[in-house]
Amino acid sequence: xxxxxxxxxxxxxxxxxxxxxxxxxxxxxxxxxxxxxxxxxxxxxxxxxxxxxxxxxxxxxxxxxxxxxxxxxxxxxxxxxxxxxxxxxxxxxxxxxxxxxxxxxx
Length: 106
Prior knowledge:
The chain has five helices and three strands, in the order ββααααβα. The two termini are 23 Å apart. The protein is 58% helix and 13% strand. Strands 2-1-3 form a three-stranded antiparallel beta sheet. It has helices spanning 24-29, 32-36, 40-56, 60-83, 93-102; strands at residues 3-8, 15-20, 87-88. It is an alpha+beta fold.
């Protein structure tokens, strides 16, 4: 189950939700959650790869790629937010510590 964590950009003040853990939506839909979160280029690339795997493996690739993406997509998205300058701004310090541990951040 994914854990939602609040993130804030210190310069612009924009607040977004970061996620850690297993993504059930990515298990079923591949890169569509990234599209919904605004990561258009990467989301479209993942959807295209997902479709190609499905076509060339007669559907088996859909399941395998979906399982792989379900485990990595939330961490990938949250790390991209950190690269863009966002910092953890969740009032629950325990949740922040767990997110840093899951993402292997110092």
